[in-house]
Design goal:
single chain, alpha/beta, 7-stranded parallel sheet, hydrolase activity, DNA damage
């Protein structure tokens, strides 16, 4: 076979059929793609895969030992079913099921070790794999392709790749061996000075050791080299973008001592926290210079981010510009509009009889507005009389024109795609200042890596008067009576004059709900559907919450109906609001003291923390009950126990990162493209990321365009593709 390089199509190396499967199922096209497709983990012969960590619906490959086999006739149709019980060596077990394949019993004899690949399902309380692919590690008279596959696992450390049903890990390992045996390795792009100072392995050896490790020590060194490459590529990209953005022109918006902001501060009925004052000064200084601010404002739920943002918006209006606040939902946009208008008083009603003629106007732009109202609002935005503009995605549409857009504030920035944020910025003649906010605390390494081209401000101090929130897990599978007690607690809160939320993961739609039980011998691939608002609300009204005033809120309701329901709840005309996560951010009803989250294990850690922040916003203590069927010892239950144990959002953010397995640190969802970033861990590699940042800043200070390092520039292009680079630039 002729020599190949990293750009060689896989079909020339592993055959058309296998190459097609790799392209279709794993998005791997070239030898380089496969080289940087590193194993997810390494098993060791005789050691077990912890089966407690397997999640329902997850595609897995497990190293396990056959414990026993049973063949029995099926009840509802002719033929037999083979059940194979495999163990993890520590008491955990998994059932493998094969229909009409009794002959496999000859292979799967008790005592044999193998790799088994399939989708985890749950049937009658037992975890199982239905008809999994497998390779036995003590295959005796293996020949042909099987022999080649078994050869991959001759070493002590067994690589297990992220696989697909059509491309199991042993097929990937065989293809990697072919590539390693034929390819001319790419030149090492890392500057020799950095390699020497950081004691980094050369790239050729690192790639060979990552796939076929000769020892645990060499595997560790290889991982460290490749993780460094990823961190360094990301940081070089971010630092370059930050340097370029700092050179863009922007109109300065300096603070005035006699404007709207000064008047607003003078009417505040409370004292700003030290954190709000400090962050306010940082933002004010950014707005006053001739380059666009690009700042991330993060803070705990209820830390007062909206107030900080409003003060920045008023500074821009004082300087003759307009400020736009982009909110992810109509519920939140409407609430922002109502709250800001109320806080400004006459200064926000310059067009009304009781308004301050020296003030400004606050405009609301949403997709559900009628044509006449929309024309009226857009005219005020276009002529500049509306200095503060609040809206949803509708702000991005053609026809929404600003007189002088000076500041863009993006609330809950993770809810918006890059293109949406960029579309709003494009409505300004010059790049506007940008402030993005999130109530999801971000660990330092995530901020440095994902938001590394932004300056970061943090609000960690809560305003005075906020009440504590008690959180408890309600384990209905183990203690069904606890759910009845949960509903009694809701009733007790209402009897004391308070209100409550009940949160469900799903709206409920008969077209998508299918509660038909599977036949006896069928395999249940998914858990039951999550509970739904439209199902739960009537059951509560007729059952444990009978007599209470119950409202329903979800994203598919018409905008005017959503607004009416939130107004009624805010005014105390409803006792209980049964809702989806539409209430997750921004909803502020101080009288709401209790929240019951049903199927809480269906939510992420940060989302649960956000939801919980809707209660305890007044003087009365808050209560959050996390209802789940997850049993003790499972990852889902451990996640809920962690949420219940702390109100520290930053600790929970790190836990969320661990639980979500990090994935692509640059946000694959935003760019929709594959990435070679596979080894970098935002938790494990904190120190390495910091070092990479320092090296990137030093290198670019001497060589801003990397003209002296063309190989490194090419490597960055491979590791951080064009779409991702644009994502970082626009972010």
């Amino acid at each position: 076979m002729t020599s190949a390089d990293v750009d060689t199509d896989l079909s020339k190396l592993v055959g058309e059929k296998t190459a097609k499967a790799l392209k279709t199922h794993l998005d791997l096209y070239t030898a380089g793609d496969l080289l940087f497709y590193v194993p997810r983990r390494y098993d060791q012969r005789g050691e077990h895969t912890d089966m407690r960590t397997l999640e329902i619906g997850e595609e897995v490959t497990v190293l396990a030992q056959v414990l026993r086999t049973t063949t029995r006739p099926m009840r509802q149709r002719r033929g037999s079913m083979l059940e194979v019980v495999v163990g993890d060596g520590a008491g955990g077990q998994l059932v493998l099921t094969y229909f009409q394949q009794a002959w496999r019993e000859r292979d799967l004899r008790p005592g044999r070790w193998g790799l088994f690949a399939g989708k985890v399902s749950d049937f009658r309380g037992r975890r199982q794999l239905n008809s999994p692919e497998y390779v036995l590690l003590d295959q005796g008279a293996a020949d042909g392709e099987v022999a080649a596959e078994v050869e991959e696992f001759a070493g002590a450390l067994i690589p297990v790749y992220p696989a697909a049903a059509a491309v199991p890990t042993w097929v990937i390992a065989r293809c990697v061996r072919v590539v390693l045996d034929t390819i001319t390795m790419p030149p090492d792009a890392m500057p020799s000075r950095i390699r020497a100072e950081r004691k980094l392995l050369d790239l050729d050896t690192a790639l060979r050791e990552i796939h076929r490790p000769s020892s645990k020590e060499m595997l560790y060194i290889a991982k460290r080299r490749l993780a460094w490459d990823e961190a360094f590529a990301v940081q070089l990209t971010l630092v370059r973008r930050k340097r370029e953005a700092a050179a863009w022109p922007a109109r300065p918006r300096p603070r005035r001592d006699d404007g709207l902001l000064a008047g607003f501060d003078g009417t505040l009925p409370f004292t700003l926290t030290d954190g709000q004052l400090a962050v306010g000064e940082e933002i004010a200084a950014d707005l006053a210079v001739a380059h666009p601010m690009h700042r991330l404002l993060q803070g705990e739920v209820g830390a007062g981010k909206t107030l900080v943002a409003l003060r920045a918006m008023l500074q821009v209006v004082d300087a003759g510009g307009q400020a736009a606040l982009l909110a992810p939902t109509e519920v939140l946009a409407t609430q922002h509009h109502r709250g800001i208008t109320r806080m400004l008083g006459p200064a926000g009603r310059a067009d009304e009889l009781d308004g301050d003629p020296n003030g400004t106007q606050v405009a609301l732009v949403t997709g559900s507005q009628g044509a006449a109202a929309r024309r009226k609002v857009l005219a005020k935005v276009a002529d500049g009389s509306a200095g503060l503009v609040i809206g949803t995605h509708a702000l991005l549409y053609e026809g929404v024109d600003f007189a002088d857009l000076g500041l863009v504030v993006v609330d809950e920035q993770h809810r918006f795609g890059v293109e949406q944020r960029d579309a709003l910025r494009a409505k300004a003649e010059q790049p506007p200042h940008v402030l993005v906010m999130t109530a999801t605390p971000i660990p330092r390494t995530v901020a440095m890596t994902v938001y590394g081209d932004l300056e970061v401000s943090t609000l960690s101090q809560l305003p005075g008067g906020r009440s504590p929130i008690a959180s408890h897990v309600v384990p209905v599978a183990e203690k069904p009576a606890f759910l009845e007690r949960a509903w009694r607690r809701v009733v007790e809160e209402v009897q004391q004059g308070h209100q409550a939320y009940v949160v469900c993961p799903r709206i409920g739609d008969s077209a998508t709900d299918d509660d038909t039980p599977p036949p006896d011998d069928a395999v249940e691939d998914e858990r039951r559907p999550p509970v739904a608002v439209l199902d739960v609300a009537p059951l509560l009204a007729e059952g444990p919450l009978r007599g209470l005033r119950i409202g329903v809120l979800h994203g598919k309701l018409p905008a005017d109906e959503k607004d009416a329901i939130m107004r009624a709840f805010s005014a105390g005309q409803l006792d209980v609001l049964v809702a989806t996560t539409v209430i997750e951010v921004g909803v502020d009803v101080p009288n709401a003291t209790a929240m019951v989250i049903l199927d809480a294990d269906r939510f992420g850690v940060s989302q649960l923390h956000q939801l919980r922040g809707r209660v305890g916003r007044g003087s009365a203590p808050g209560l959050c009950l996390l209802v789940t069927e997850a049993v003790a010892g499972t990852p889902a239950r451990e996640r809920l126990d962690a949420v219940a144990s702390t109100l520290d959002g930053f600790r929970l953010a790190e836990l969320d990162l661990e639980q979500r397995r990090e994935g692509d640190v640059l946000g694959a969802a935003q760019s929709g493209r594959r990435s070679h970033l596979r080894l970098l861990s935002l938790l494990r590699d904190r120190e390495l990321i910091g070092e990479a940042r320092a090296e990137a800043e030093a290198l670019l200070a001497d060589d801003p365009d990397l003209s002296a390092h063309p190989l490194l520039a090419d490597q960055i292009a491979r590791l951080v593709d064009t779409d991702r680079a644009e994502f970082l630039q626009k972010g």
